[in-house]
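Holo prediction. Input below; ligand is protoporphyrin IX containing FE.
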Amino acid sequence: MEEPREASKEIVVKDSEVLYSCFEQVADSGEDIAPAIYGKFFQAMPEAEQHISIMDERMRGRMVEQIYSLLLGEADTDYLKFEADMHRGYGANTAFYRGILEAVKDTVRDRLEDQWSGEFEGAWDRSIERITGEIEQFSSADGGA
Ligand code: HEM
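Structure of the complex:
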C-alpha cells in the first residue's frame, strides 16, 4: 500500500515537471526575467525593497536562481533551513517569502499568456504552499522569526 508521504512526493515531482516546462518556455525567449520578478515583488510589497536594495544585480540573479531550484524541488530541506536561518538576519519573513514566490509565478504567467492553464496554476500554487509551509515550520521550531 502506498504511504501518503510517497503520494505527496509524486505530486511534488509532477508539479516540478510542470514548473520546469514553464521555465523552459520562458527561457526560449532569451529574456532574463529576474528584473521583472523583483519589480513585481516591490510593487506588491514596497516594504521589502529596502532589504533587497543592498544587493547588486549579480546577487539578485543568484538569489532568483536558488528560488527557481526550490520551486523545481531541487533543493533539499537542509539547504532551505540554512537559507531561512540566514535570511532572518536579512529582514525576510513568511509574507516576503510568499511575496517573492508569487512574483515569480506572476512573471512566468504573464510571459506564457494564453498558454497558461488551470493545471499550471495548481502546480505553482502547491509548490509555493510547500515551500512557505516548510519555511514556517523552521521558523516556529526555532521559536519564531
Ligand atoms: C525562498 C526564497 C529565497 C531564497 C531561496 C533566497 C536565496 C538567497 C541567496 C542564495 C542569497 C545569496 C546571494 C549571493 O550569492 O550573493 C540571498 C541573499 C539575500 N537575500 Fe534571499 N532568498 C530568498 C528570499 C528572500 C526574501 C523574501 C528576502 C527579503 C527580504 C531576501 C533578502 C536577501 C538579502 C537582503 C540578501 C543579501 C544578503 C547579503 O549577503 O548581504 N531573500 N538570498
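The pocket of protoporphyrin IX containing FE is lined by residues 48, 51-52, 54-55, 59, 62-63, 66-67, 70, 83, 87, 90-92, 96-97, 100 (CB under 6 Å). That is the main takeaway for now.
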